[in-house]
Amino acid sequence: MPVSNVITLTTDYGTRDHFAGSMKGVLLTLNPSAVLVDITHDVASYSIIDAAFTIGHAYSFFPQGTVHLVVVDPGVGTERRALLVQTAKYYFVGPDNGVFSFIYEREERVVVRQITAEHYFLQPVSRTFHGRDVFSPIAAWVSKGIEASNFGPQIGDYKRFAGLNPQVVSDSQARGIILKADKFGNLITNFSVAEFPQFARQPAPAFRIDLGGRQISVVRNAFGDGAPGEVFVVVGSTGYLEVVCNRGSAARLLNAAPGTELVLSFA
Predict the structure, then answer these.
(1) How many whole angstroms from its chain centre is CA 213?
(2) In the chain, N or C: fewer CB atoms in 10 Å?
(3) What distance in Å separates the CA atoms of residue 37 and residue 260, rounded to the nearest whole number?
(4) Is the pTM value of this prediction over 0.90?
């Protein structure tokens, strides 16, 4: 697969420190022609599931051959492996901690390699900053056309999240989790319209979501259709049901975060 010069960055580093900037410096030193795109540096700290959701819903909008660099890595410096993942159209570089779970779920053809070719790393390698010393150099070399097989052997026991899909308990009930709480406090569930197509039809079904001690049973077409402060459900841009509060934070009101469990019931 031909590579492009586009390299995206997704991290939990924020922008107040030197971390993201140092990674960009390494990328541009090794590939001065690289086009660097920040997907975000504001993934919730240490939240692998937040990072997995973020890259899982952004990667496919980029040109074929893009290299997606993802570093949310609470296991940095331990025995966790470094990965190069190749799909039909894209490359992904990051830690083997489940951060590419949505990629594994959605892509039909995935080749996963453990990165073992240490001569491509920045030396010396810090035990606390593999984003700079391991993952950025690999992403840069991939973007320059180095064959994926040069970086290490193919593996099949890579880590992936269980439970990305809801558990259907019966014809009238399913259990799920919150995948992400976005900047506005909207709670993105793992209930997709693909799996529950009745939410894409009018009128909406009679339902109830039990979350944080509250019951939500109203679905609206848009945020502005609700009264200020009202908690309700919308079908979000990612195709998942979102529990939202018009002009407020559903996450704060319901004391919910990624991983929080919820129950969807139909009348």
Answers:
(1) 27
(2) C
(3) 31
(4) yes
Going from N- to C-terminal start, the domains of the chain cover 6-151, 167-266
> 6-151 belongs to which CATH class?
alpha beta
Tokens of 246: 């018009």
For residue 47 the two structure tokens come to 């939240």
pLDDT in tens, the chain (267 residues): 788 899 999 999 999 999 999 999 999 999 999 999 999 999 999 999 999 999 999 999 999 999 999 999 999 999 999 999 999 999 999 999 999 999 999 999 999 999 999 999 999 999 999 999 999 999 999 999 999 999 999 999 999 987 788 999 998 999 999 999 999 999 999 999 999 999 988 888 899 999 988 999 999 999 999 999 999 999 999 999 999 999 999 999 999 998 899 999 997
Fold exhibited by the domain 167-266: Elongation Factor Tu (Ef-tu); domain 3 (2.40.30)
